[in-house]
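Risk mitigation, structural track. In case the binding assays with FE2/S2 (inorganic) cluster fail to produce interpretable data, a predicted complex structure has been prepared as a fallback.
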Amino acid sequence: MTSDLRSSEWYAGDDRNSFIHRAWMRRGVPDSAFDGRPQIAIANTASDLTPCNAHLNEVAQSVKNGIYEAGGIPLELPVVSLGETQVRPTAMLWRNMAAMATEEMLRANPIDGVVLLGGCDKTIPSLLMAASSVDLPAVVVPGGPMMTGHFRGEALGCGTDVWRLSEEVRAGTLSQAEFTRSESSMIRSKGHCNTMGTASTMALVAEALGTVMPGLAGTPASDARLLAGAHDTGRLAVQMVAEDRRPSTFLTRASFHNAIVALAAIGGSTNAVVHLLAVAGRLGIELTVDDFDRIGGQVPLLVNLQPAGRYLMDDLQRAGGFLAVLREVRDLLDPAALTITGRPLVDYLDDALIWDQEVITPRSSPLQARAGIRVLRGTLAPGGAIIKPAAASPRLLAHRGRAVVFDSIEDFHARIDDPELDIDEDSVMVLRGCGPKGYPGMPEVSNMPLPKKLLARGVRDMIRICDGRMSGTAYGTVVLHVTPEAADGGPLALVRTGDWITLDVHARRLDLDVPAEELAVRAPSRATVDGFANPRRGWERLYVDHVLQADRGADLDFLVGSSGSAVSRESH
Ligand code: FES
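Fallback model:
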């Protein structure tokens, strides 16, 4: 066996330990498996409890075929999977745990490279964080979106239409029975959510970063081309090992620049901000939340997909796919950024044409001229907060209103539909206790449903401010990721119902209009200090003690950076 492969540290030689490592792996594999062939793990997030990823075993089989064909040995490695709709209290609480467990298993095992299979929201981020910290050759295969379902002749967007239809029920314009009937129409096939939610966003952003085979992200889960792409990715993983193409060799600040341009052009999920900051932190790349505004703020919105627009992911594929979008903003991309193939991302754009200008608009007629995420600062968010103008109401982007404060999501649910609640369409809804430490886990609750009595009057958007996140499938004028969070000493804990709050997105300001002298003597709300953030043991204890704020990607402080792939000691 050649000695330059990492796996040879386990398998080469004729001593007792190499005997043990080889012997237990001989379950039908030939001698040649240990004779200098690259050992490629397939980190697989397939799980029946992650329905969006349940089909990844089939994808893994295609990856295996490609690895074998290229002379490697495929080794499936089931890793922690997170079903966004299933796990409580929020999948985000477990993203760092999944990343840490995957990182350790990649490092601990005799592998030379890895193919990462993800789909549902947190799975691709956790896999990328792990691979970046282990720094072995790694390539992502996104599981792909599901096919569009229809109800009463209308296309249904996963997530986005749940929010829309449930608001219609609360407004009294849709019956409960019809709402329930729509449920079986929404999830039509295997795959992840078909809106431009977090799963779709992270698949496309992973490709913009250079970690997916160019042109593969966005391919629907049930499209035969996904399996062909998975096969080719398996072959590529073997080549990446031969060429030692590790994340640290091609992921640079330029890669993140391209990811931010792509995020704005597709009108992607705000969750990409925390995920990209976390991945950059693992790689030691200087990236701040302000980069999203500075780089993305000038990028036009070109993709007409829910929640910001009308269409769904299989429409994007039909209209030319992600590369056709990137081709329109080619001049904004950094041409130096490389991909897993060793070639620059911009090399793949020449033939990418738009076939439906309703779905992908040309640069000359964008849906919005400047669509990127805006970063706000001010007395209410000294560490920053973000807003997605593409999903907001333009009339609310500059607004002053009176705060109506909720101390927790439970407090919100208990009071929001109280007819006596003193609130109108000019009020600013404030929800706190939902940050990384405060919840804990920074859940997707910032897009608070509007009060029933205002919905009945036809109000469909109001300003909402929160230290949590919002679903990538959600819409509205929502200021989120307020930093520092209330439970970490942020001024959000000092706001009282009736205070005036000024939002000015054009000036990038979010201010609590209360004199500093008065704030200095206000005690923070006890609810946000005591809250639910006092776990006594287990992962939650570790998380609350070490989680960073949203502006650092909500990673754990001791997971930032890389440990590489070296293992110092033998197991026997
Ligand atoms: Fe899995 Fe939306 S719930 S991607």
